[in-house]
Design a protein that fits this description.
Keywords: DNA-binding, Transcription, Transcription regulation. The protein is an alpha+beta fold and 101 residues long. The chain contains six helices and three strands, in the order αααβααββα. A hairpin with a 2-residue loop joins β2 and β3.
Length: 101
């Protein structure tokens, strides 16, 4: 996992947090994609862009920040990139925060 600072910087944006929330249960937030399991493979950047109601450049930048922080993983299939949450990393953050109590 990247440094805690990178993680907290990635989480310092409401839209990036929203992306993580949507990716927690992608079937509830995104339309099915032919031949793609939203849970196992992830969600196409195009669908995330539409849901955010932002341009693809901004969405890609947000996804890149989350990816560099280790909070999501990316999988390229053909010309499309699919993103899903890195549950292990997110659980590690939770454990890190609980240590502070």
């Amino acid at each position: 996992m990247d440094t805690q600072l990178d993680i907290f910087k990635a989480l310092a944006n409401e839209s990036r947090i929203q992306i993580l929330e949507w990716l927690k249960n992608p079937e509830a937030h995104f339309s099915p994609q032919e031949g793609i399991d939203l849970v196992e493979v992830g969600v196409c950047v195009g669908q995330i862009t539409l849901k955010l109601n932002m341009n693809q450049s901004t969405t890609s930048q947000y996804l890149s920040i989350l990816h560099r922080a280790g909070l999501i993983s990316a999988k390229r299939i053909g010309k499309w990139t699919y993103y899903k949450r890195n549950e292990d990393a997110i659980n590690q953050i939770g454990r890190y925060l609980q240590k502070g109590e």
